[in-house]
Specification:
about 180 residues
Amino acid sequence: MEETQFKGKGVLKWALTVGIIIVLNLFFWVAIETAYSSPDYEEYCPARQVNEVYEDEASCVAVGGQWNPYAGPKTPDQGEGHCYADFTCSQELQAAQENYAQNVFVVLVILGTLSIIGGFMLRMSPAVSAGLSYGGVLTFIIAAMRYWDAAGDLVRLAIVGIALVVLIVVGVKKFKE
């Protein structure tokens, strides 16, 4: 009787590695949203059952709105401008979202770093080690993408610089020939 041996073990290891990368980052996302949910528009700008129409700048600004005068030709039934009544609450929401993005960035960088360290520490399974390490790298990418728009130029430079230095140091220490 001829014994057959499965030859696709390498493919299964890569499947496990890719699965860990994806599920690790999904886990981080769900954990963050569960423990620290993102700011909700309704929290800052509650829905109104009846929307008021503000005909002048004073009444618009009094409710925290932004008055926008019409420029150019107007029709006879048009007023002097229009009011964006949710202006102030939208500004507060944007500030809260930027703060949230910064906090999530810090958490993701920490989790990504721990994942990479865990990947280097677990030597018994190359597929799991690679999954954690690559998952940590993907976490860095996701963290940077989420916070990139809110970060200033110096913060972006620091993010990229620190990541580069850490990866070079880890590479030199772990992969000496």
